[in-house]
Amino acid sequence: MSRATNTPSRVLPEVSVSDDGRVRHLHLGTPWIQGSMRIDEPFALELEYVQRMMAWLLFAEPARVAKGHAMQLGLGAGAITRFCHRQLRTRTTAIELNPQVLLVCRQWFKLPPDGPRLQVVLADAAQEIRRPLWQGSVDALAVDLYDHEAAAPVLDSAEFYADCRALLTDTGCMTVNLFGRSMQFERSLQSIADAFGDRALWAFTPTREGNTVVLAQRTATRPRRAELLLRAAVIEARWGLPGVKWLRSLKPVVA
């Protein structure tokens, strides 16, 4: 059963669903798409930026992925949680504020029930991640926290990112969905750098929609390109993600 903690008393947006017969979308009270699922392939990753949120695999030992722990802040349509649980077969935790989002994900987006390897926590992520239970336990942290207006991340301070860093194992990575063409982007990047350090950051070029995924390592490394290419080939063969293509647009952030 999903665990609920004390969540703040606030008005949460209504959750709705649309589809075109091929792809199903989740909305939070506006036409903005907050998540998507391919109807005939519910455990694939439909959106390009969501695929890029999995780029932490480039820095992980493939043989150890299934033994790790993935956490998602902001469930959305559950794409990352479904993929980590079903495709990577890793222990997976999602933290979501809105109970309606969880209900819709279970009814319309093929989110499996909680079990030994899957847990959804209904809570405010800013508070939940400070619990000692989670400290140093997460190998892959996906942060995708937007409200119904989808204008800027709702949690985006250096203090928040420091709390995220504290979740990670020594070899763990965080990926964050940002809007690379907005004025907020540089401030967000600086907040992440303040928490993780300049040498720990990598960033993709923006997608056509403007999403820029930033990756931050708990322990900064600069793997050789040959090593990254080998990992990318494994990622493509084992999990069907465009690992080699990632390397053409994922670069270290220069301070």
UniProtKB/TrEMBL annotation:
InterPro entries assigned: SAM-dependent_MTases_sf
Protein keywords: Polyamine biosynthesis
UniProt keyword Ubl conjugation, yes or no: no
Superkingdom in the source lineage: Bacteria
Parts of the chain that traverse the membrane: none
GO BP term, pick one: polyamine biosynthetic process
Gene3D superfamilies, alphabetized: Vaccinia Virus protein VP39 (3.40.50.150)
UniProt cross-references to PANTHER family, sorted A to Z: THERMOSPERMINE SYNTHASE ACAULIS5
Official protein name in the record: Spermidine synthase
Originating species: Verminephrobacter eiseniae (strain EF01-2)
Lineage: Bacteria, Pseudomonadati, Pseudomonadota, Betaproteobacteria, Burkholderiales
